Amino acid sequence: MLHISRSLSLPDTELTERFLRADGPGGQHVNRTESAVELRFDVAASRSLPEDARARLLARRDRRMTEAGVLVIQARRFREQARNRDDARERLAELVRGALVAPKKRVATRPTRASQERRLAGKQLRGKLKQARTRHWNGE
């Protein structure tokens, strides 16, 4: 059971772990042990996720999400399989926690008159500077 929040936990039946050989530090030992972890979570078929969180996760443009709606997390930071497993599970929990929070709606605002005037004054200054350059280059 992977605890996400007080009200949400993902059962282990919805998570698929695969262990593979990791690259990186570890000497000859790295060639013999499968310390890297690939954690798969089928977001599209999950029964424990709330519908709005599922939609937000599926809508993310994330290279870890397959077209079938499966989230794939690879963890190979550590030399020990157990630490990589915990790392992958924590990263998944963090992603799901982020999807549980609805993004705030953007409130449309208008620029202030002072900011508009500053912008126009800057444009006029820039135009005068460019105009001064052209007169100089044309030999006038």
Automatic annotation (TrEMBL):
<feature type="domain" description="Prokaryotic-type class I peptide chain release factors">
    <location>
        <begin position="21"/>
        <end position="37"/>
    </location>
</feature>
<dbReference type="Pfam" id="PF00472">
    <property type="entry name" value="RF-1"/>
</dbReference>
<feature type="region of interest" description="Disordered">
    <location>
        <begin position="104"/>
        <end position="140"/>
    </location>
</feature>
<keyword id="KW-0378">Hydrolase</keyword>
<dbReference type="InterPro" id="IPR000352">
    <property type="entry name" value="Pep_chain_release_fac_I"/>
</dbReference>
<dbReference type="GO" id="GO:0004045">
    <property type="term" value="F:peptidyl-tRNA hydrolase activity"/>
</dbReference>
<protein>
    <submittedName>
        <fullName>Alternative ribosome rescue aminoacyl-tRNA hydrolase ArfB</fullName>
        <ecNumber>3.1.1.29</ecNumber>
    </submittedName>
</protein>
<feature type="compositionally biased region" description="Basic residues">
    <location>
        <begin position="125"/>
        <end position="140"/>
    </location>
</feature>
